[in-house]
Design a protein that fits this description.
single chain; about 325 residues; mainly alpha; Farnesyl Diphosphate Synthase; about 0% strand; globular
Length: about 325
């Protein structure tokens, strides 16, 4: 295992930043950009590029700080299941804990500085406050004194941050949302509850592979509190609720085309069938089966959100 660890500084930092997990933030960010563009009626490429740069800084803060905050639980998992999980950044010596913390701190400071400059540059007077709010959620998630990810509130905070606040931040960055007239939500805002339900499903599923080590480390998640089978059922139910919420938005919300909501909901349900078929194999400590389970679940979330974002934008730009 040690001979497969990255050797160069670039390789070590790249590993620590976990590129495979990036869609977890970039998909909701792009989803929010699409809401802002649908609100505005056009796409601003500069706002989009600025949003992706800001998302990377937020992502680096979250990933690194989460590794720093979870270093003891990660060490427990590596000791107990040395061949059942991938190497962990700090316990396996890929980067020292101090470097990880400093890197996360610099990324968070960079996000705030970028937002402060962007207020004037992009004409978004609430960008600093919105970015600070997103960072505040992630601080409450991982860092003391709250450290809610260890107290049973992590999944709910992830639903709030990834499913609602991050898309809203990007909708504001792209569309402006008419702050001067106190219009705080994008026109298709009715799709946000569905996005929140999908983010909650992803958050619950993320705890499946850490059930034993989290319990030993005193970490309270939906999986450690409810058990593996109930957590899987909850994640699957949340996917279905997200698809239903989008359909209801298409039926009853003025600025959400029914065809867009129905197609995106169908994409979620298509992948949900695969999630359910894999579910019975994704039992406690079945790490490979859990990996496949989460791949199907993430496909439901990410492909559904991408589909809805593209359709909302295309319909707004070319048919309205």
């Amino acid at each position: 295992m040690a001979d497969r660890l990255p050797k160069s500084a670039y390789g070590r930092w790249r590993y620590a930043l976990k590129p495979d997990s990036w869609p977890k933030l970039f998909v909701p960010a792009t989803f929010g950009q699409a809401l802002g563009a649908a609100h505005l009626g056009r796409v601003d490429v500069v706002d989009y590029a600025a949003g992706m740069a800001l998302t990377f800084l937020l992502l680096a803060f979250i990933v690194l700080m989460n590794d720093w905050g979870d270093r003891e639980v990660d060490a427990i998992k590596r000791r107990r299941f040395p061949h059942g999980c991938s190497p962990k950044t700090i316990p396996d010596g890929i980067l020292p804990a101090g470097n990880v913390f400093l890197g996360g701190l610099l990324a968070g400071a960079g996000a705030l500085a970028f937002a402060w400059v962007g207020e004037g540059w992009l004409g978004r007077p609430l960008l600093f406050e919105a970015t600070a709010g997103c960072l505040g959620v992630f601080v409450a998630y991982t860092l003391p004194p709250l450290k809610l990810n260890y107290r049973g509130g992590g999944e709910l905070l992830e639903m709030l941050g990834v499913g609602l606040l991050l898309p809203w931040l990007h909708a504001y960055l792209q569309g402006g949302l008419g702050v001067e007239s106190l219009t705080w939500l994008p026109r298709p805002a009715a799709v946000l509850p569905g996005m929140a339900a999908l983010a909650f499903a992803s958050a619950v599923a993320s705890g499946l592979s850490d059930e034993v080590s989290d319990r030993l480390g005193g970490k309270r998640t939906f999986t450690t509190l409810l058990g593996n089978p109930a957590a899987r059922r909850l994640a699957e139910l949340s996917l279905a609720v997200g698809a239903l919420a989008w359909l209801l938005a298409g039926l009853f919300a003025e600025h959400v085309p029914l065809v867009a909501a129905a197609v995106a909901g169908a994409v979620v349900l298509f992948h949900l069938r695969r999630v359910v078929r894999q579910s019975t194999s994704a039992v406690t400590n079945a790490f490979e089966a859990q990996k496949v389970y989460k791949q199907h679940l993430h496909a439901a979330v990410w492909q559904g959100a991408r589909t809805l974002a593209v359709l909302l934008l295309l319909i707004r730009l070319f048919f309205r």
